[in-house]
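Journal club prep — side note

Before the paper discussion, L.F. wants everyone to see what a predicted structure for a comparable chain looks like in token form. Sequence:
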Amino acid sequence: NLLWLFIAILSFYPLWSIHINCKRTIEAAFIMNAVLQLNYLYATFLCFRYMWKMIRSFNTSYYDELDPEVRDKIQHIVVMPTYKEPVELLIETMSSVSNQTIAHQIIFVVGMEQKTPLQAEKKRRIRER
């Protein structure tokens, strides 16, 4: 990058060729500018190509692109560590996960600290749900 910057600065100001005839200086500056412009065009092309791929990927669901046989074998594990969260919040979170379209592929694990207040009561209410 520093080399290209150095070349770019020198290409606009051909002070390095004071002792060479004027025609050669203009030709050299023209060639250097042409090389830089081609480099910029190529970089612009690569940027547009990358942006096009990125926009296309945003509009396409990864889940829909998968083979149906592979899609059904995928398992998701949701681990929810808790300590002093209210039971209603835990039940609401579990309900939200169970309402997903792929709920049959989700393994839900609730982990509680050993010193969680009302641990037995929370476990009972979650199991009733």
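L.F.'s comment for the group: The chain has a mean pLDDT of 82. Keep this in mind when we get to the figures.
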